[in-house]
Write a structure and sequence with these properties.
Elements (H helix, E strand, L loop, with lengths): L7 H17 L4 H18 L25 H4 L49 H30 L3 E3 L2 E3 L1 H14 L9 H5 L10 H25 L6 H20 L4 H9 L5 H19 L1 H5 L4 H10 L1 H4 E9 L7 H18 L6 H6 L4 H7 L6 E5 L7 H7 L9 E5 L5 E11 L5 E9 L12 H14 L3 H10 L1 H6 L2 E9 L6 H7 L9 E5 L3 E10 L4 H22 L5 E3 L1 H4 L8
Helix pairs in contact: 5-7, 7-10, 8-9, 8-10, 8-19, 12-22
Length: 587
């Protein structure tokens, strides 16, 4: 290693001298060659072994070993040489500033010096054992923590068929089910409620909801496998709905000033992530849609099944029309009762099974305002009445008697004995197609009664904002996530009615729904004293109502048969060692 110069001045002052010295050392090349030749001749005369070196043939360039006596190598011995006989010469001038950095190396054992690097380390056994013990303790602690978390993550709480459901997936679905059923895990006493005796014979509500979760997962995988086998797959709309759920979680996280990942782990479990939710939820939405549409279409009733089911239960699928008239007097004496019954029988006799004459014939036995009402056509007609809408058993049995014919009449009596005339008009199947409509109620707050809702000053602008955000059915569905807190508080309520028939709702709602011009995608905003109501028209069934109602029972039976056939392959089993890591309220 070269010694560092003291300063730049040293370098500058020596450069000129070095150049001068170098110039003086230049030798004549001719004299140098003569000197080298002379030295070579001297070397030949001094080397005792020179004559023994084999000659090199000029012809083939190989050593002529044949010229060496065979006994030569047997008698020759190596000549020992003293190391001191070899001088070490150096090109370094003794005045060179780097010269002192080079030291002569001696190979004599006596000159050996123990260096710092070569010293033997003197280990103290006690310190060594303490150090190793500390390392072992650290490794043990790390292993316990690491393996503990690993066990928690890897131990499955549920097996469905041949699928082991991960801790993260089950934990998410369990808390998702709790939220869907209105259980707020952050409310006080929620954990106590979950430990209370549950429904359907379960020891606790925790056990009940764990079972609901297992069935939800079982159904999801059952339908998912069936759907994909039939060529269906998750669509962008299902992913968009899942993203809307994530956005809602993000708004909840922002409200309490935590990041999304922290909020997800605190709500659903320590191993639940956004990516897992985006993997699980689209599958849930996809199978729900498949079960409600493609699968039901596959399992629908055949025409023969539908007709047989209709004939077996006509009262449930028919509508009856009839005319009814009650004849009474203010006086309750017997003679008045008798007179009223005589008039009733005369009306029946005079119409002579022509039910269309009922009002005009009956009007002759009345006067004044009552007579004027009877002269209005169909003023006594009750049209398209359902079996469930007639509460009097005796009346219902008569009008829904399958032998009933138009013009048939009968007299019933009230508690005073006055006559009530029924005149049968017709019996028809439920032909008007059912309507599928989504409702979104926004309730007005009432501070006096404590009814939850939106303050009066805010309800109209908020309702308009919600109404404007609806562009399709998916956006209508997303409201359930966007306003999940208000729904849980009872300030809002989403409802889907896919079997709406005339008379099912208030008159103004029915008028809008059954408008002949109504089409899919239409929406409206209605207001009354206590609420705002958004209606979204989904569709009208392509089938008559009676067929859809018959079909709903048949395909439900077919669906149950389908599920039963799959239960063996999708049986679920809980694992207690995994369930112990599923916390009701994640920490």
């Amino acid at each position: 290693m070269k010694k560092e110069r003291e300063n730049e001045k040293d370098i500058d002052t020596t450069q000129e001298q070095d150049l001068t010295d170098s110039a003086s050392e230049v030798t004549d090349y001719d004299s140098l060659e003569e000197q080298e030749t002379a030295e070579a001749d001297d070397a030949e005369s001094l080397d005792p072994d020179l004559d023994l070196i084999p000659e090199v043939s000029e012809i083939d360039g190989q050593v002529g070993f044949s010229e060496v006596p065979e006994t030569y190598w047997d008698d020759s011995e190596p000549i020992p040489m003293e190391l001191g006989a070899h001088e070490v010469s150096t090109v370094l001038d003794e005045n060179d500033p780097d010269a002192p950095l080079f030291s002569e190396v001696s190979t004599r054992p006596a000159d050996a010096v123990v260096t710092e690097k070569g010293r033997k380390i003197n280990w103290k056994p006690k310190l060594f054992l303490i150090a190793m013990a500390l390392i072992a303790i650290i490794v043990l602690i790390w292993s316990v923590i690491s393996l503990g978390n690993l066990n928690e993550r890897m131990t499955s709480p549920l097996t469905v068929g041949d699928r082991d459901i991960s801790n993260a997936e089950f934990s998410f679905m369990y808390h998702y089910v709790l939220l869907e059923n209105g259980v707020d895990i952050f409310k006080e006493n929620t954990e106590k409620m979950l430990m209370a005796p549950g429904e359907n014979g379960f020891a606790t509500y925790r056990d009940y909801f764990l079972d609901v979760t297992a069935k939800e997962i079982q159904t999801t995988y059952m339908l998912y496998d069936d759907a994909t086998a039939h060529g269906y797959s998750i669509t962008d709309s299902h992913k968009a709905r899942a993203q809307a759920y994530i956005d809602w979680l993000k708004s909840k996280a922002d409200a309490i000033h935590v990041d999304l990942d922290t909020y997800i782990k605190g709500t659903f479990g320590p191993y639940v992530t956004k990516s897992l939710i985006m993997q699980v939820l689209p599958r849930v939405y996809f199978t729900e849609d498949y079960a409600g549409h493609q699968k039901l279409e596959e399992l629908k009733a055949t025409p023969e099944q539908a007709e047989q089911a209709y004939q077996d239960g006509r009262n449930a699928y028919d509508l009856v029309s009839y005319r009814v008239l009650r004849i009474t007097f203010e006086a309750r004496e017997e003679n008045y009762v008798t007179t009223a019954n005589i008039h009733a029988q005369k009306i029946i006799d005079e119409i002579d099974h022509d039910q269309s004459q009922f009002e005009s014939v009956a009007a002759k036995y009345f006067s004044g305002e009552a007579q004027q009402k009877l002269l209005v056509p169909d003023s006594t007609l009750h049209k398209r009445v359902r079996y469930s809408e007639i509460t009097e058993n005796e009346w219902r049995a008569w009008v829904f008697d399958t032998s009933r014919q138009p013009g048939d009449c009968v007299i019933f009596h009230d508690e005073y004995g006055f006559p009530i005339i029924f005149c049968f008009v017709e019996r028809v199947r439920q032909e008007e197609p059912l309507r599928n409509v989504r409702f979104f109620y926004i309730y007005r707050e009432d501070e006096e009664t404590g009814r939850p809702g939106i303050p009066t000053s805010e309800i109209i602008p908020l309702s308009q904002t919600i109404f404007d955000s609806i562009t399709d059915e998916a956006s209508m569905t997303t409201l359930e996530t966007t306003y999940a807190d208000e729904i849980l508080d009872g300030a809002m309520r989403p409802v889907q009615m896919d079997s709406i028939y005339p008379g099912n709702n208030a008159e103004n709602v029915d008028d809008w729904i059954f408008d002949p011009q109504r089409k899919s995608g239409d929406k409206t905003l209605l207001e009354d004293e206590n609420q705002m109501l958004i209606l979204y028209y989904v569709e009208s069934s392509p089938n008559p109502e009676w067929y859809d109602r018959v079909n709903s029972f048949i395909r439900m039976d077919n669906y149950q048969a389908f599920v039963s056939s799959k239960l063996k392959d999708y049986a679920y089993t809980f694992h207690e060692e995994g369930l112990e890591y599923i916390k009701d309220i994640p920490s």
